[in-house]
Amino acid sequence: YTLSLHDALPIYVDVIGGDNHMKPHRFFTLVLLLFLFSVCCISPTFAASDMPRLVDAANLLSAEEKTELLNKLDEISNRQQMDIVVVTVDSLEGASAMQYADNFYDMHGYGFGTEKDGVLFLISMEERDWYITTTGYGITAFTDAGLEYLSEQFLNDLSTGAYATAFTIFAELCDDFITQARNGNPYDISFAEESFAFARNFGIAFGIAFLLSLLITESMKRKLKNVHYQAAADNYIKKGSMQMIQKSDLFLYQNVNRRKKVKNNTNVSHASGSHTSSSGRMHGGRGGKF
Q1: I want to staple 141 with a disulfide (CB 3.0 to 4.6 A). Which of 90, 170, 181, 266 is the partner?
Q2: Which of 193, 188, 86 is nearest to 139 (CA)?
Q3: b/e 123-148 (16+ beta carbons within 10 angstroms → b)
Q4: Number of Cα atoms under 13 Å in the Cβ half of residue 111
């Protein structure tokens, strides 16, 4: 509902026509307040960006996969109040993966709040580049160590062409990382060191238990007086009880296991905390080849 000046004019006439006259400056104050109230009532709530959170320009996903992934990205983004975006393109158009991802995020208005909180996952099929750019609180939630761990989880699926699986892993881990950061414990080197310390302590405990069991079994073995070590199996056969008149070696079968050799990700670029995009906004990030 909106209120125009023509709608307000009869109110003015009625008021000044009564016993209590309203002064002109009070009338204009009333009109101004009514105008501001009408603007507040009819103003819609705009999203952080008019662009969808999934832009599959390279057509890597089926229609069903696109719908499912977009719903997941929207649900997590709105619940966490951070934009989680996936973009696929055929070419970087001469830019680096970092520049393209940063500029795409900034130019299309992604991000929640004044700091534009969010994270964008870019895939370019031209040179098989990937890059994750973070902004605002995304820089806090996704540390260098966290981005390294995150990429390790989806790179194998990305390399084999399981794009829907890779993007789903990315979205779900983003949800976990943001929750962990909001709880005051973002995934960082210290978190990784705690995991390593747990593994180290477990290894020490396992080693001690193994040594104790070895000592116990050796002690039991020594009590077996009538058992002696034999270097060859023929010592267990009674002499003259078996004669071999013919022998031959036959090749029965061959079993070959093939495994795909994981590419050495030597082209990974490490963001040193944060950098400034061409628009002047601070970004964090990490990228490489797949």
Answers
A1: 181
A2: 188
A3: bbbeeebbbbbbbbbbbbbbbbbbbe
A4: 23
Average pLDDT over residues 28-39: 54
Residue 284 and residue 273 in contact, taking contact as beta carbons nearer than 8 Å? yes
* CA 15/CA 27 separation, integer angstroms: 9
Cβ atoms of 112 and 118 closer than 8 Å: yes
3-state SS of 223-286 is: CCCCCCCCCCHHHHCCCCCCCCCCCCCCCCCCCCCCCCCCCCCCCCEECCCCEECCCCCEEEEE
Report strand pairing: 83-89 vs 269-270: unpaired
pLDDT tens-digit map of 245-274: 777 777 776 766 665 554 444 344 333 478
pTM attached to this predicted model: 0.59
DSSP letter, residue 92 = -
Residue 144 has pLDDT above 70, yes or no: yes
Report in angstroms the alpha-carbon separations of 225 from 74, 120, 220, 228, 229: 74, 71, 11, 8, 11
Q: Judge whether 137 and 122 are in contact, CB under 8 Å.
A: no
CA–CA separation, 188 and 176 (whole Å): 14
